[in-house]
Amino acid sequence: xxxxxxxxxxxxxxxxxxxxxxxxxxxxxxxxxxxxxxxxxxxxxxxxxxxxxxxxxxxxxxxxxxxxxxxxxxxxxxxxxxxxxxxxxxxxxxxxxxxxxxxxxxxxxxxxxxx
Amino acid sequence: xxxxxxxxxxxxxxxxxxxxxxxxxxxxxxxxxxxxxxxxxxxxxxxxxxxxxxxxxxxxxxxxxxxxxxxxxxxxxxxxxxxxxxxxxxxxxxxxxxxxxxxxxxxxxxxxxxx
Lengths: 115, 115
What we know:
The structure holds two protein chains of two kinds.
Chain A: E1 4-5, E2 10-14, E3 19-21, E4 24-25, E5 32-39, E6 46-52, E7 59-61, E8 64-69, E9 74-79, E10 88-96, E11 103-105, E12 109-114
Parallel strand pairs in A: 2-12
Antiparallel strand pairs in A: 1-4, 3-9, 5-6, 5-10, 7-8, 8-9, 10-11, 10-12
Chain B: E1 4-7, E2 10-13, E3 19-25, E4 31-38, E5 42-51, E6 54-57, E7 64-66, E8 76-78, E9 87-94, E10 105-106, E11 110-114
């Protein structure tokens, strides 16, 4: 079974629209970590955020915000006022347990922002 | 710091050939890992290492060997390449006392084609 599910394969939005990327995870551990990475067309992987299982506070960083809800096992990512530079593939990832040696990625959501 | 470096960037092999993908990091990170990225599959963990002399299998280890003789280097070996190993390979590292909390830093990737 997929430990990290990103049901949205591709999303297209018009510039300046808001967009939310969904991430649902599955784990039996009480200690775990969640991450979002961005992969622009150039191919590198860029770290965006991490969240541990004991911290359900939402976080905002500029136009980016993240909503972590343990009750629904979700860690959604919202981009406000999207820009063309936001076009990329976004991956949600899960690291389980205190060591976090096994790291699971979702299949990614490809976001296209149309000017 | 160069971060995580990978060589080569591109490689074409014939079925049955062997080769080693090189990965090095200069951040004194204990944890290093190898992933493969395939369309629609996200990134999948092949092997990882929590320190020199210690390696373990990830989600898709078959067909790949690793060793970790130094903290800096973590090569990935394909002993007999198969077309199913055509993929983009990423090396990553992370460090810190609470290493499970820390994000992974990724190399630029190696695009491998097996004919």
